[in-house]
Amino acid sequence: MSEFSEDSLDGGAVIRPEPSKNPDAFLQVRGLRVHFPTDDGVVKSVDDLSFSVARGKTLGIVGESGSGKSVTSLSVMGLHKAGTAKITGEILLDGQNLVGMDAEKVRALRGKRMAMIFQDPLSAMHPFYTVGNQIIEAYRVHNKVTKAVARKHAIDMLDKVGIPNPKGRVDDYPHQFSGGMRQRAMIAMALSCDPELLIADEPTTALDVTVQAQILDLIRDLQQEFNSAVIIITHDLGVVAELADDIMVMYAGRAVEYSTAEDIFNSPQHPYTWGLLGSMPRLDRDRTERLLPIPGTPPSLINVPDGCPFNPRCAYANLNGDLSMTVRPEFRDIGGDHHIACHLSAEDRVRIWDTEIRPKL
Amino acid sequence: MSIENGDAVSAQTETEPTESKRTGEALLTVEGLTKHFPIRKGLLQRQVGAVQAVDGLNFDVQKGETLSLVGESGCGKTTTGRLLTRLLEPTAGKIVFDGKDISHLSVGKMRPLRRDIQMIFQDPYSSLNPRHTVGTIVGAPFKLQNVKTEHGTKRAVQDLLALVGLSPEHYNRYPHEFSGGQRQRIGIARTLALRPKLIVADEPVSALDVSIQAQVVNLLEDLQNEFDLTYVMIAHDLSVVRHVSDRVAVMYLGKIMEIADRTALYERPMHPYTVALLSAVPIPDTSRRGNRERIRLQGDVPSPVNPPSGCRFRTRCWKAQEICKVEEPPLAELAPGHRAACHFPENTDKLTIDPTGAAHS
Ligand SMILES: Nc1ncnc2c1ncn2[C@@H]1O[C@H](COP(=O)(O)OP(=O)(O)OP(=O)(O)O)[C@@H](O)[C@H]1O
Ligand SMILES: Nc1ncnc2c1ncn2[C@@H]1O[C@H](COP(=O)(O)OP(=O)(O)O)[C@@H](O)[C@H]1O
Ligand code: SF4
Ligand code: SF4
Ligand SMILES: [Mg+2]
Ligand SMILES: [Mg+2]
Q1: What is the pTM of this model?
Q2: What is the spatial distance between Cα B131 and Cα B109, in angstroms, rounded to a whole number?
Q3: Greater pLDDT, B287 or B53
Q4: ipTM score over 0.90, yes or no
Q5: Looking at CB atoms within 10 Å, which of A3, A192, A242, A360 has the fewest?
């Protein structure tokens, strides 16, 4: 499967259960590894990741900066610069493996079969072409229509994403739009061919809450209209709670917890997920006197700690002898399609969540 | 409309009164504070207009309390912070600090006051000189102010590093060797060097990951308690703001729309803009999905070069009437300590003061 599996730190199991019962899911990622060789050593940005998304469903990917979220989405989209990333594993888009596929072939899939919304709209839009022309071009790559028809479509799309006076604004350049409008225009571009898979990588991180709410509504509406598979990547647990059916929590290039959104919020089982929830002040609860931060900082992805990568920051690392320090916990199903990578026993998890974590949130 | 529609806040009343830190003694008083940036054009650099970044603010900050300024991007928060610390010269209005009018003090006359008023900057990456060691950076205020410490500057700096949770061994290291959260701690150590009375913190945690953000929030709280600090916090995350503030001022296009104690503002917001902001905050609770009634603001914030007549919020307000266009609503006290600038405020059924009388008087 991969040239890296020999030197990986896990306990030996190479094939992991895929965290979804749905083998027909539109996107299936299996054992994905993305490693960047650098002068300082190999950066293991994504290290054995598996997930899937069905049509009409939304997967939320949550994690702190540097946990591998963007590298994952760029791998699916085939957007890593040629030669920089070593990608192994499988990325099946409607059954077709994109890993190792000819770059031209992957390019042909972008736009219609899969599209991406980036965190920074300026990086996705060309400054010298009007907003309208960029949408028109994107549309005509996949649709044999006249310029006039494509232009009408571009105006419709701008209208749909809430650009006021779309007929008048279609010939504006990106810099003439405000930040929120640019983000919406980029979404119009990404959605112009009704993509079957939409990846939104921190689509609202740079935006005010009012604009964020508009954008999230938009993604929700368009998904319902086109029954697309959607991946929303964010570090804001509030955003995923609004949109996601399933949530995958990432830490240091790996999945540490994966379940339905309800489970992740109501009965999270992994110490890192507990840490994220405790760190976050919540408007929907009484104000707590004190936040409960996770101590320390995320590890370097060049020197990932032995055993569980979270062990230097985990309050429960010593509950299983030295297991957490020496053996990489396997990503396993703990029942009901809820997966975690942690050595804690079921009794310990239930006890800690009920007595130590939940009462303080 | 009642608060249940605003919904972003817990319905329960907090037990501890948020007024507790109001000592009755104002450390800082601001009257009619205004900053207009001239826009110049042509060879002669003739002034053709002005960005009305801050336009007539009135508020005070009492000793030992935290006042937060919130609002959408571009509403004038940073400009206000820079005026308070006198990094900018006000166009009009008055700033009184500790009984002294500092509105137009020269750089020389300001210098001794720099000990008392410090600023923490938004971006922990660009606010530290990359060529200076941590020791030089944190020790700079002693040097600038010619302050002799009992056991020498090095020892004083190492004590400061320990105080903010860094190690004294970090003394000879450079900023690039630190993570974002650690850099923010270095910045905080520097501001604390001369034991200031007032700290203006511009988005001190916005650039940090949620687990690190919680560490820094707790640190700022501890330091406030230990040294009896007064904070003006600038932020846009309304959940963080509720956690850290005693009082909150909501800004829109250079003006204060509403100012109140934390509990009052979050439980009984009166200005439609505040209600809209709160209802836009995503809530990390999957059971609330779909059944939150929200107010969606349309469009973007108008340009501060040509703000709307009358009420500046009227172009996006769902309650706007003719009077909102012609008459600017005063920032009127609608309940004790609770001021809002609106002709048709919300949540007035819970008031003791007649809002119509007060708002139009
Ligand atoms: N030096 C300047 N010259 C001209 N206009 C300026 C200057 N500094 C700020 N402005 C303008 O003043 C307004 C207020 O800016 P300010 O930086 O205070 O906003 P802010 O509330 O801090 O926003 P953000 O949340 O994005 O940091 C904006 O319209 C900004 O473009
Ligand atoms: N081209 C590259 N070369 C080397 N390292 C990279 C490259 N791109 C990303 N990385 C590293 O991979 C890790 C994950 O990055 P990323 O996926 O962007 O994180 P995030 O979860 O914040 O989106 C980081 O440590 C990052 O520095
Ligand atoms: S495996 Fe050990 S260190 Fe890792 S999360 Fe579980 S208890 Fe903590
Ligand atoms: S004064 Fe009028 S426009 Fe302004 S907030 Fe109140 S109702 Fe809305
Ligand atoms: Mg990213
Ligand atoms: Mg600012």
Answers
A1: 0.87
A2: 30
A3: B53
A4: no
A5: A3
